[in-house]
Each structure stands twice: as structure tokens, then as C-alpha cells.
Design brief:
4 helices; alpha+beta; 17% strand; 126 residues; GIY-YIG domain-containing protein
Length: 126
Amino acid sequence: MVRNDKIRLPPEDKPVVTYEVLCSCSASYIGETGNSLSQTFSQHLSCLNHYKNALSDLQGRPRKIQPQAAMDEAVKASAVVEHASHCDGQLVPQVICQEQGFQLRKIKEALFTRHNEVINRDKGKE
């Protein structure tokens, strides 16, 4: 009798993945991470929250950093934020593939980016 007590993680909780963030407007962002997809997507959402907070603070009380500077900083941090700043679509992340090797992961990201319609800034040329 063979027992399998190994806990299986869902794909979004496994580290070292190439991933895609789909917007409901059909825009797509492809990236790679050494972390889990859920952790990386939460970083994208955190930048988006910084952007939205700065946008709402343009009319509110003054902050330590000027709202426009905070918005520019958030947009520079992520192409997902740049797209979401002018699109109200829902963002849905998904794992494309899992790859342990950093170089292979970067190559796969570049190939997926180059051969798909994406909102990435580098368009797979890095």
C-alpha cells in the first residue's frame, strides 16, 4: 500500500512561474516571477491601490508626496497599473507555465510576449 501525504499546491501558489494577467477588455500582460503568482499579483494590486489613493487625494488633504508624483511612480512600477489606470475592466491572473530555471523562464516570457497581443512595455525584446 502506497500513501501519498504530499500536499498539492494550486498553480497560483507555486513559485517560479510565467503568468498572464487578463483584463476583461481583452488586454493581456505576460510576466515571470520567482515568487508565487498570488504574491506577485498582490504587488500589482498594491501599486494600483497607490495609484487610486493618489488620484482620490488630488481633491483631498495634502500628502507627504504629491498625488501626481505618487500616481506617476505607481504607473512606472507596473504596466498592469498603467493599463488599469484608464480601463475599469476586471483583472484575472493565471499561470501559463512553471519553470525552475531563471534563464528559461525569461526566454519563455519573451516568447509568449512576442507572439501574443500584450500590454507589456518591452514587447518581448529584453
